[in-house]
């Protein structure tokens, strides 16, 4: 909607005000985020004016066209909260910087860099200000249909759906919403995955060291087995980069698979040999078809997750 470009000065004012309450001495006066949001909201509302109105040159003021008043009044607090949130969002975690702009990352599920998705409610614009990117105009969703709404339109004409149901809670939800029965279809091949007990550590350095030791233990041969290829799956792009750096002088043959925007043909064009290591995000957990050489032992997986404070 072209008219939303008139909100850019307001978003810039919200961002500078939020920064003011997060930096300097005010962050100690307003130690709680909720208190900071409330204080920033009061200051912004005091400076906000909808046109047509008289210009006030005696104090700081932000002018917004009057036809946007309803939208601003309903969304102002959300935008302010998102301005504070954008300050804590981490690059290569929730988003990444690409040539064409700031792009969100579905780090917790698929690991996909979502090139055609724009973060809503000002997050996109606040991150652009944070990294000094060209400011894009805010967008507004005017038409929306949920998955539930779509399927309900078919009424009793859907006879079956196949797919991964997830855990029991997800299965129960699907059965309740759609009034359907579900069943588990067993795999046609015997599961060969052997799961070892996980290791929990408290410090980041120890966390990286444990993963490096696990990788080296598998890539080096022992008297009872040959080398193995290793796939390390990290939660975020930054974690994968950190591990790649930590293994730089320890593993001679490793590849990084962290973005669907990269040229990843080198990873898939040949079979995975013994001793090779792939460090990836959740991109490697869905639809990644790794071909293992005939000389290779079963591939070893390391699922890495670092809890944030």
UniProtKB/TrEMBL annotation:
GO biological process: intracellular protein transport; protein targeting
Keywords assigned by UniProt, alphabetized: ATP-binding, Membrane, Nucleotide-binding, Protein transport, Translocase, Translocation, Transport
Domain of life: Eukaryota
PROSITE patterns: SECA_MOTOR_DEAD
A Pfam family the protein falls into: P-loop_SecA
Residue intervals of the SecA family profile domain: 1-309
GO molecular function: ATP binding
Protein name, as recorded: Protein translocase subunit SecA
Organism in which the protein naturally occurs: Dissostichus eleginoides (Patagonian toothfish)
Taxonomy of the source species: Eukaryota, Metazoa, Chordata, Craniata, Vertebrata
């Amino acid at each position: 909607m072209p008219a939303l470009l008139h909100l850019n000065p307001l978003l810039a004012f919200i961002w500078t005000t939020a920064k003011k309450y997060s930096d300097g001495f005010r962050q100690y006066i307003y130690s709680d985020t909720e208190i900071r949001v409330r204080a920033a909201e009061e200051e912004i509302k005091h400076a906000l004016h909808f046109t047509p109105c008289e210009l006030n040159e005696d104090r700081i003021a932000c002018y917004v066209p009057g036809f946007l008043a309803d939208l601003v009044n309903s969304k102002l607090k959300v935008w302010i909260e998102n301005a504070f949130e954008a300050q804590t969002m981490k690059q290569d975690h929730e988003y990444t910087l690409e040539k064409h702009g700031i792009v969100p990352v579905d780090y917790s599920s698929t690991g996909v860099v979502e090139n055609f998705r724009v973060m809503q409610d000002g997050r996109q614009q606040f991150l652009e200000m944070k990294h000094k990117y060209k400011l894009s105009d805010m967008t507004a969703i005017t038409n929306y249909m949920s998955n539930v709404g779509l399927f309900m339109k078919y009424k009793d004409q859907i006879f079956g759906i196949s797919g991964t149901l997830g855990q029991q809670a997800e299965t129960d939800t699907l059965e309740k919403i759609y009034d359907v029965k579900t069943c588990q279809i067993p795999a046609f091949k015997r599961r060969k995955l052997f799961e070892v007990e996980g290791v929990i550590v408290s410090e980041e350095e120890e966390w990286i060291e444990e993963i490096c030791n696990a990788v080296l233990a598998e890539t080096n041969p022992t008297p009872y087995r040959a080398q193995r290829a290793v796939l390390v799956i990290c939660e975020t792009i930054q974690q994968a980069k950190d591990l790649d750096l930590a293994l730089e002088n320890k593993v001679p043959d490793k590849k990084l698979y962290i973005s669907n925007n990269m040229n990843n043909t080198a990873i898939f064009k040949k079979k995975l040999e013994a001793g090779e290591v792939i460090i990836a995000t959740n991109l490697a957990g869905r639809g990644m078809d790794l071909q293992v050489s005939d000389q290779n032992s079963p591939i070893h997986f390391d699922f890495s997750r670092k809890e944030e404070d």
